[in-house]
Structures are given as C-alpha cells and as structure tokens.
Amino acid sequence: MNILNKLNFNYKENKLFYMMVFVFFCVGIVLGTYMVKYMNLNDSTDLAGYFSSFTKSITEDPVNNKVLLIDILKKNLMLIGIIIVLAFTVFGTPFILLVDLIKGFTLGYTFSFLISTFDGKGIWLALVSILPQNIIYIPCFIALSIVAIEFSSTKLRDRFFNKSKVNTIVERELIFKVGVLLCVFMVGTLVEAYLSPGLIRFVVTNVYKVI
Fold first, then answer.
1. Shortest CA distance to 106 belongs to which of 77, 141, 81?
2. pTM for the whole thing?
3. Is 74 exposed, middle or buried (0-12, 13-18, 19+ CB in 10 A)?
4. CA-CA 20 to 30 A from 163: which of 14, 44, 129, 139?
C-alpha cells in the first residue's frame, strides 16, 4: 500500500511528464502505422521477402539463444544508456521525448507491417513476435523516460532558479529507480531471447505451415 501511495503521489507531482511521454509514444505508434500505408511497393516487397526468409530460417536452423540474448541486451542497453545520459543533462527532456517518439514509431511500424504484409494471418505473427516482451518493455521504457525527464527537469530548475546542485538524495533515488527498471528490463530480454523464438516457430509451422 505504501508503494501505491508513492506511485500516486509521484503521478500527481509529475502529471505533465506522464502526459508528455504517453503522447509522444502514442504519436510515434500512429506515425509508424501510417508510414506502412505510404510505403512504396518496392520497399514493401523487399521487406516482405526478407521477413519471409527469416521465418523460414527460424524453422530450419536452431536458434542460438545466448547469441540472441547478447544482441538484444546490446540493443536495449544502448537505448537505456541514451536516456540515462540525457537525464543528467540540463536540456535532456526534448531529446528524451524524441527517443519516445522513435520507439513508438518502430513499434507501430513493425506491428502494422506484419499485419498488412501477411494479411489476416499477420496478426498472429505480430502478436507472438512483438507482444510478449513488449508487455514488459513498454511500461519500463515509459517509466524510465518519466524518471529521466523528472531528473533532467530538476537539474534545469536548480541550474537557472535555485542556483544549487542537485542533492545526493535525488541522485540516489534516480540510481535506485533505474536499477529496478534495469532488472525488469532483463526479464523482458529473457522473454524475447528464449520465449519469443519458440512462439514464432510455432506460428510459422502451424499457421503458415512453412514446413
């Protein structure tokens, strides 16, 4: 109950940050979805061919989960690292929101592309390849963005109004929150590396009947 109270208090204190992150992320999803509709035929054909070859290869060759896990960690840690670095800058907020927009764009683009390319069956491939890990990723990503914007805004306010440095308690709170979110992110990477390939294989072999 204490945690819920803290979350509720944080939401009331930073309602604007929650709104900005959510809006930019959703706008990115919408832009990504519409981009697929306006993609030219050659690009669409190339991407469809690439993804079809990928779905075939995943049924024929065993997945090296360890290598996949390392690749996923590199991708996620790079994105998380950018947000954390921006959190320690005075004018990091607009750039963090830009990262949110790009993240939403890639998610909306990928989901819409899979559905439109593979017709009705694409919904199953989109769900198993995107949904499992993103159930964990998206809340963590949004939470991390809000924490980063909150810290960056604190630095901006202290720099130009209070004329004092951000105290160590605030920095420790940031490190603690980021540490918790990183642990949850790790769960998402394990899901993406070990669960999603099996789900994709199941859909490809049973819905698309590749083999």
1. 141
2. 0.83
3. exposed
4. 14
**120-135: pLDDT as tens digits:** 667 787 888 888 999 9
The domain spans of the chain are 10-207
CA 191 to chain centre: 14
Nearest-angstrom CA–CA distance, 60 and 56: 6
Query: In the numeric block, which tokens belong to residue 64?
Result: 């090296």
- Residue 42 pLDDT class (50, 70, 90 cuts): low
What's the distance, CA 171 to chain centroid? Answer: 24
Place of tokens 């899901």: 191
What H or E segment, with its residue span, contains residue 29?
A: helix 15-37
The CA radius of gyration of the chain, in Å to the nearest whole number, is 20
Contact partners, residue 82, CB within 8 Å, separation at least 6 = 99
User: Which residue is it, tokens 């642990």?
Assistant: 183
Give the chain's length: 211
Q: CB–CB of 185/125 below 8 Å?
A: no
